[in-house]
């Protein structure tokens, strides 16, 4: 069992802070949570696309976890808007999925259901080691995720989230509180879904100064631009994205660049140790991009992509013309992030930026990091 870890501003691994050269805050913290013995007790707040996929993965990969770390994941509580299901003996994924499908809320579980119990109260009441915060995003207030995360930190639970809201609304507050309390906080899935770009920066680029980051980080905008290149109007492309379940009914957060800006705030604050907020970002979305502009770019071997940029001094989001053979010129819903470094050149990570299992897979990898920190490899 390790008793001390060094980590950057909530990102990265348990090795010496990988982001120090870039100015990220470094804190050597004592792990204060109780040691785990045979199981890591987990609370999942949010039983939507990511929450369900994550619970499925936790069950499916338990024998792998046991053989590598000597422990199993035990889901002791799950909550949605209707309340919670709680069992210290552990809940069953398939049982809970059935209840959710048939009765719309996990709180309708005939034995373990706790109708109307709020997420923060679940955290306070239930004996657990790790909170998965997988509820809806509100980047203005950070709620309900912010209250869930703060309650978990207060109680000494380690926290893993895919929810951008709390980190965009209150980055420094959350990170500093977690560091003060000796809590491991992981949020790799908030930026780029399956891409794990935060982990790449913290682990693979450990000790390497990061100079600039450019990212295509919004699948919906990229899908719309790609379809417009193929001849659809913006309205037709958005409608198609909505029919495929890629775009929200109101796609403005994506189309107007806000979602990309949120991800760039989290990236910049983590990598460069800043305290940027959304108001600090110069944002221009793709709403006014025309088919003529795309055709004109194509005739010169270029494409238009919505690019987030940061060098630690500023953050911007805007549609830009880039060469068709640029690694950032991805198609459909793919994401790509390019990292310009001092000595390692320019590196690019690309892949699915969203999707239930794609995102849950990243959340699970954060969990494996925490399991390793709590139990060590065996
Ligand atoms: N889906 C992706 O590809 C993806 C990728 C990266 C990041 N994310 C982020 O991951 C999070 C989850 O995404 P998702 O796709 O799973 O969303 P989702 O399908 O809309 O699920 C959200 C879940 O949160 C629950 N919830 C909402 N308010 C709650 C509250 N006050 N207390 C307890 N539960 C509450 C909802 O309950 P009900 O079921 O009762 O409505 C639902 O189960 C979001 O923050 C999202 O931005 C998602």
| Tally of structural domains | 2
The radius of gyration over CA amounts to 21 Å
Pattern of helices and strands:
EEEHHEEHEHEHEHEHEHHHHEHEEEEH
* Beginning-to-end CA distance, first to last residue: 10 Å
Mass-distribution shape: globular
List unreliable stretches of 5+ residues.
Answer: 1-29
3D structure, described in words:
This protein is of the alpha/beta class and 378 residues long. The protein folds into two domains: 4-204 and 357-375, Rossmann fold (3-Layer(aba) Sandwich); 210-352, Dihydrodipicolinate Reductase, domain 2, CATH 3.30.360. It has helices spanning 49-60, 62-69, 93-103, 119-125, 145-155, 164-181, 197-204, 219-229, 234-243, 252-255, 258-272, 291-299, 356-375, and strands at residues 4-7, 27-30, 39-45, 72-80, 83-86, 113-115, 130-133, 158-161, 185-186, 210-216, 282-283, 302-310, 315-323, 334-341, 346-352. The strands form three sheets. The protein has a seven-stranded mixed sheet with strand order 6-5-4-3-7-8-9, with helices on both faces. Strands 11-13-12-10-14-15 form a six-stranded mixed sheet. A two-stranded antiparallel ribbon has the order 1-2. Helix 6 (164-181) links the parallel strand 8 (158-161) and strand 9 (185-186). It starts with a strand and ends with a helix. NADP nicotinamide-adenine-dinucleotide phosphate binds at residues 45-51, 79-82, 105, 119, 134-137, 144, 162-164, 189, 193, 354-356, 359.
